[in-house]
């Protein structure tokens, strides 16, 4: 059966890469090939960067409000195509359609926030810094930026950066994940309809070669990266070596604590969504459940009951509670971790292996899985599994929970469930991860707050979106003036 081949979008045109290497794109619910993507080349990257570079002088001079108006039009076009984007996303990534809709909503919120450029992009000035001398700090765009993004949020993640880069007057190249290239392709079809000036936004599909070509390109000023920690570290080091600005968001191993005074029914339903939403493939997903003290048995019992009720299936079916994982290799990796947990001596109380979904025998399914009696040094408690596998580590008190959190190699997000204000204060003050939920299992900062962790979950200083991102995409030029 013939399938569409994803093309690059360069200089306002759809172009086929000259690459001889192609990747297959699968619908993970069915295990069926639905597209091919060419793994772009140095030449593709160079053509895109040159287009973006050529577009920069005119785009830079375009008044900020005019640039923002392109985003207003884009927002409207995204709203009109909302369902279409969400369905494409589910078809290639697997997450349930409601989660896909949520992702598209978050993508649009970044476009909305970026339109605040005329307030958020202001510089500052000071009269009389010395006698008859004034000083002005102008926020100037820098040139061509690029985003390199992961498979789990194919619509939203590039838009944590792109609208801010554009609205501040820079031009852009996006490199989607080669596993899920169709969603951004759909989004770029909408960009084409809206009609940005030629070369302002470009997209090159591909894998490592495209990434390396972007990292080495002398005309790229900065890179925004989201993906696994080893890749994030590599990107950050390489940007350092080539003198580029860099923000590199990495992996996670998030701990969710439940104190003895937590409201259990709300806690359990909320925590279950944290651990199993997007089949555990969220950088904010809970991975370790840490019930404290006497409440532990009850938490485990209720969590287990709720997890057993999740209906696994095709994400396009509105009744599905959890979709497949995104790929076959990924599925095998998760299953390996379940074997590892068993070998390490943890107690498997819910087994998601051999998860069968009627009508979809070839889909990449892993059912909700729970290990009890996990210890902090086991691989299932240290490594990012990125799947629907929960490790329960019972803790005696808050100190033990905080210690568990702060001894993970990652520090992306964490949550605590309690009704005690002083516990909350202690928790948020001492934990290392920088996205913290209080009675909230997915502490996802909205577009007007920064998104990113600390430790090995983040390399750089300015995170995704929020107010700070306007600084990532601008240089503050300071002019000190005296007139005789
Ligand atoms: P990944 O690191 O494998 O891939 C991310 C991007 O980097 C892709 O575009 C890929 O083509 C490229 N890439 C991969 N390996 C490379 C290499 N060796 N050299 C050059 N480029 C390379 O990540 P993934 O598997 O697509 O995504 C899952 C990971 O992303 C998880 O670790 C998850 O926690 C993380 N993530 C983090 C956040 C966050 O906000 N911190 C958000 C979403 C996902």
Class by helix and strand content? Answer: alpha/beta
**CATH level-four homologous superfamily name of the largest domain:** Aldehyde Dehydrogenase, Chain A, domain 1
- For the record, the count of structural domains works out to 2
**What's the shape?**
globular
Radius of gyration: 23 Å
Number of helices: 16
Tell me which ligands are bound: nicotinamide-adenine-dinucleotide
Mind telling me which CATH architecture of the largest domain this is? Answer: 3-Layer(aba) Sandwich
Report the strand count: 23
> Mind summarizing the main beta sheet?
7 strands, mixed
Task: Enumerate the spans where pLDDT stays under 50 for 5 or more consecutive residues.
Answer: none
Q: Helix amount, in percent?
A: 25-40%
CATH topology of the largest domain: Aldehyde Dehydrogenase, Chain A, domain 1
Terminal Cα separation, in Å? 77 Å
Overall average pLDDT: 98
Strand arrangement, major sheet: 15-16-17-14-13-19-20
């Amino acid at each position: 059966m013939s399938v569409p081949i994803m093309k690059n979008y360069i200089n306002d045109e759809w172009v086929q890469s000259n690459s001889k290497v192609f990747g297959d794109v699968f619908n993970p619910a069915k295990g069926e090939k639905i597209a091919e993507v060419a793994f772009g080349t140095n030449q593709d990257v160079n053509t895109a960067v040159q287009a973006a570079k050529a577009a920069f002088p005119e785009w830079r001079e375009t008044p900020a409000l005019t640039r923002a108006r392109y985003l207003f039009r884009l927002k409207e076009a995204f709203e009109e195509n909302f369902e279409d984007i969400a369905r494409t996303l589910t078809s290639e990534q697997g997450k349930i359609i409601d989660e896909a809709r949520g992702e598209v909503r978050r993508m649009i919120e970044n476009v909305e926030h970026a339109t605040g450029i005329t307030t958020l992009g202001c510089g500052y000035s000071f009269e009389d810094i010395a006698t008859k001398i004034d000083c002005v700090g102008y926020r100037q765009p820098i040139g061509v930026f690029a985003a390199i993004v992961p498979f789990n949020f194919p619509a939203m993640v590039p838009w944590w950066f792109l609208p801010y880069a554009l609205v501040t007057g820079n031009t852009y190249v996006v490199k989607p994940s080669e596993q899920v290239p169709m969603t951004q392709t759909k989004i770029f079809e909408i960009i084409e309809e809206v009609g940005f000036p030629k070369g302002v936004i470009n997209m090159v599909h591909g894998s490592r070669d495209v990434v390396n070509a972007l990292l080495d390109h002398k005309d790229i000023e900065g890179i925004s990266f989201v993906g696994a920690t080893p890749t994030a570290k590599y990107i950050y080091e390489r940007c350092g070596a080539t003198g580029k600005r860099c923000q590199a968001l990495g992996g996670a191993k998030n701990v969710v604590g439940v104190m003895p005074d937590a409201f259990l029914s709300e806690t359990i339903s909320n925590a279950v969504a944290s651990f199993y939403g997007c089949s555990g493939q969220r950088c904010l997903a809970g991975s370790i459940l840490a019930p404290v003290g006497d409440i532990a048995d009850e938490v485990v019992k209720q969590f287990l009951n709720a997890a057993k009720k999740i209906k696994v299936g095709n994400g396009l079916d509105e009744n599905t509670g959890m979709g497949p994982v995104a790929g076959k290799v990924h599925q095998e990796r998760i299953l390996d971790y379940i074997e590892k947990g068993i070998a390490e001596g943890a107690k498997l109380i819910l087994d998601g292996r051999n998860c069968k979904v009627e009508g979809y025998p070839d889909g990449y399914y892993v059912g909700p899985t729970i290990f009890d009696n996990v210890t902090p040094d086991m691989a299932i408690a240290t490594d990012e599994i990125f799947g629907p596998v929960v490790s329960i580590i019972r803790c005696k008190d808050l100190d033990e929970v905080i210690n568990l959190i702060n001894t993970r190699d990652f520090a992306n997000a964490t949550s605590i469930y309690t009704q005690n204000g002083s516990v909350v204060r202690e928790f948020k003050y001492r934990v290392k991860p920088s996205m913290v939920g209080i009675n909230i299992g997915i502490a996802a900062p909205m577009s007007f707050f920064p998104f990113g962790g600390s430790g090995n979950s983040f390399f750089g200083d300015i995170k995704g979106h929020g107010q700070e991102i306007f600084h990532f995409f601008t240089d503050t030029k300071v002019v000190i003036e005296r007139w005789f």
